[in-house]
């Protein structure tokens, strides 16, 4: 136990140095899904290893079949131990032309109301968020020379690319990494005033499908109608994925998807989620999914099927009357409760094959999978964390569901038997995965202060 | 009237020079649909003007709102006058990686059987074909100092891009360009031994559709299901274009599409078209279009709807869980008999708008249109040409239908009141519009000889 007021004061007086370190980190082009940036990912891992060493962690970037994984330990203090997880990789930046500036030349902008935002790829997801925890540790070390509890840090570089390295790494290093609980900072506030702990996360199943028709591109004037057009074949398959009521039409897809428990339904209704504001913020107004489901259900507790990308034929300037040889699509499913990603993948592939003409061929490529997960909020650490967040933000922290998928949760649970506390300071308008991603300086600053309080609370 | 044997002999002894000129022409990157190549198109027009001048034509490249149009006249001879039409522009070359060599560095390859092919973009469509006519004129001038009949040449640069310049140009220069009949060399042989005159051509209606959903790319984990996904909206529209029987489902689309006249149906049946060989040549086996229609009907006398290109969301390496803001598709319709492209366009746009959610937007871009056309083969010039081709190839030339659309035919008919004889020497395996386009040296050589015979026949 140690007095945290000087630590909080240190955070306030040294926020500019913390911001400077984050801006350095944001300049590293750690796009994990594109092999062209493998060197940048390695450089980013090295950056973190050095940074953790600089505050007394025993840290290094470990080799994996994919991008390196950074591991750091400072277990000099006794007590309740934590493993903090974050990811240093970022999403691709296209369409580049929609960025107001270079995504890897971060800038601090000042709003008309005087508040500041940090703009750049990864500012929120996840470099800005993970650094809130690292800076909290730095402040403790600077003020008291030690941390209040044993802390390990695990930073991966394949979160955005459904990478396969982490599960193997966790299994191979279970004894080293095991802690009393996991901490992750990769989620959002409930709203700009209300902090949140995410207690449910959907799973993921990513698939890429390639349809091949003719063995070359054909002139549609000569072969039109007679030759199978992969664009038509693919469009039919993609259209069939959802029925007229917005339900996903793959047989057995909803197996293991129960209705929401009444208690949770009531709690969510009490949040008075404003669906029209949620959609209005992105220029829409009509919930597009399953009829009869609330928007909050759709994004928290219902499974989804989204075409993340599709393409076939001539997409350049002008026009080309071609029947393409190939067409392809990237499709992802968000899974809930007990849906099994492997069962879903199998059912999807059967659904597609059924719709491919006998003289065309189809290939599939797997892009990551993870089961949905729920945490037991009865564990004392959850309530301690909730109180610490409530103190920092001056508003009751909420237990919420989560739309995104963070496969690591499942891996930590299955490989290390650990529950995870998901507390993050992102905001709905952070535009993560989109052009002009940002992170509020307030999220960064109060996020650091929040972890100072959480680390202290967990030591009591 | 003049003895053609020395002219044919001249063609044989000077074929290498003719080939050299064609290779020069093929090096010019005259891709009309991509503005980046406008300079190359202008250079190509100048090349033709100089070449025509070199054989005594009064020729020049004329400015248009788009790419230049080359016009040349040699009307020193009296008699039955012809206007030869060709196009010097070519299709884009992507996917470039599928070419065995630079598409604009043409090569002459020798097959195992000793026959030669000219490989490069435009080798067949239409530079190689149009040069067969120009070289025939060159031979006449070299041997007899004059042509047997009055000849005008019209070479446009927007045939592959549905360009709008030609109709205006024809209307503005009708008196100058009018001739007794039009000649076009932009079609195929019936088979490698049998020459053909195309007497029916389908029309064209090209459309590009853009769907916009959210005002930015979204994270599918946060907005999945709830936010309209333009990929899903577009896939549904594209799938709906054809019903389960392969019929095009746009209301009124088949207005003005009669059944084939029995006489023509019998003649086509007599051709013993080998549908499995036709599809087998491109790696397919099952006719994909309207149930109950022969493949020959599909490609000659039935209208089509093909998705030439579609795209939306992340199509790069790896995976990105995004809901894209936009998706788009390029769609072309081949029209027959009395279908009106403007009516089809209107019906298509209504069909699409009906399927766009109220909170999404749709935009359209027009890409060319032309009505289908049939020629009166009762005109003596048709039979004279058919006999000339029969003599050159030693096989009865056939009157055939045509799958492609050559809008100029309609323009020549409407603007100048001219019928057109479509005689070409391309082969089904020329891969026009595809990577590794080629033209048989035999097509080029005997094509030149064919025009020598046709020009002579038309002078008798």
From TrEMBL, chains A, B:
InterPro entries in UniProt: Cyt/Met_Dipeptidase, Peptidase_M20, Peptidase_M20_dimer
Domain of life from the UniProt record: Bacteria
Keywords: Hydrolase, Metal-binding, Protease
Domain Peptidase M20 dimerisation per the UniProt entry, residue ranges: 201-359
UniProt xrefs under Pfam families: M20_dimer, Peptidase_M20
Alphabetical list of Gene3D superfamilies matching this protein: 3.30.70.360, Zn peptidases
NCBIfam families xref list: PRK09104.1 (NF006579)
Protein name: M20/M25/M40 family metallo-hydrolase
Organism: Alsobacter ponti
């Amino acid at each position: 136990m140690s007095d945290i007021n000087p630590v909080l004061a240190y955070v306030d007086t040294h926020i500019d140095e913390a911001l400077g370190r984050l801006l350095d980190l944001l300049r590293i082009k750690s796009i994990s899904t594109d092999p062209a940036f493998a060197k940048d990912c390695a450089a980013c891992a090295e950056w973190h290893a050095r940074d953790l060493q600089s505050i007394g962690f025993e840290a290094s970037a470990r080799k994996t079949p994919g991008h390196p994984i950074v591991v750091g330990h400072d277990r000099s203090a006794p007590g309740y131990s934590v493993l903090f997880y974050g990811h240093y990789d970022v999403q691709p930046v296209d369409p580049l032309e929609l960025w107001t500036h270079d995504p890897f030349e971060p800038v601090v902008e000042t709003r008309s109301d005087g508040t500041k935002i940090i703009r750049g790829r990864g500012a929120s997801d996840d470099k800005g968020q993970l650094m809130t925890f690292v800076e909290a540790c730095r402040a403790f070390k600077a003020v008291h020379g030690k941390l209040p509890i044993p802390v390990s840090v695990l930073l991966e570089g394949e979160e955005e690319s459904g990478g396969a390295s982490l599960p193997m790494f966790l299994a191979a290093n279970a004894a080293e990494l095991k802690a009393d609980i996991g901490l992750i900072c990769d989620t959002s506030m409930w709203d700009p005033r209300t902090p949140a702990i995410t207690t449910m996360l959907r799973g993921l199943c990513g698939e890429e499908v390639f349809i091949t028709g003719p063995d070359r591109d054909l002139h549609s004037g000569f072969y039109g109608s007679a030759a199978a057009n992969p664009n038509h074949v693919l469009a039919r398959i993609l259209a069939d994925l959802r029925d007229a009521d917005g339900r996903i039409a793959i047989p057995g897809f909803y197996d293991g998807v129960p209705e929401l428990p009444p208690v949770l339904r009531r709690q969510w209704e009490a949040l008075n989620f404003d669906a029209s504001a949620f959609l209005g913020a992105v220029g829409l107004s009509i919930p597009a999914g399953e009829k009869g489901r609330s928007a909050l259900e759709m994004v928290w507790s219902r499974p989804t099927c989204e075409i993340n990308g599709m393409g076939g034929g001539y997409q350049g300037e002008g026009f080309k009357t071609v029947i393409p040889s190939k067409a392809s699509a990237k499709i992802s499913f968000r899974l809930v409760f007990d849906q099994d990603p492997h069962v879903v993948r199998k059912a999807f592939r059967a659904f597609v094959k059924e719709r491919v003409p006998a003289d065309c061929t189809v290939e599939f490529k797997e892009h990551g999978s993870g089961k949905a997960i729920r945490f037991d909020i009865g564990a004392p650490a959850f309530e301690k964390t909730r109180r610490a967040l409530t103190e920092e933000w001056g508003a009751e922290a909420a237990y919420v569901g989560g739309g995104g998928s963070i496969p690591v949760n499942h891996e930590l649970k299955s490989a290390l038997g650990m529950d995870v506390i998901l507390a993050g300071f992102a905001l709905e308008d952070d535009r993560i995965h989109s052009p002009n991603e940002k992170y509020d300086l307030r999220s960064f600053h109060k996020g650091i202060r929040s972890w100072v309080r959480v680390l202290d609370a967990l030591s009591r």
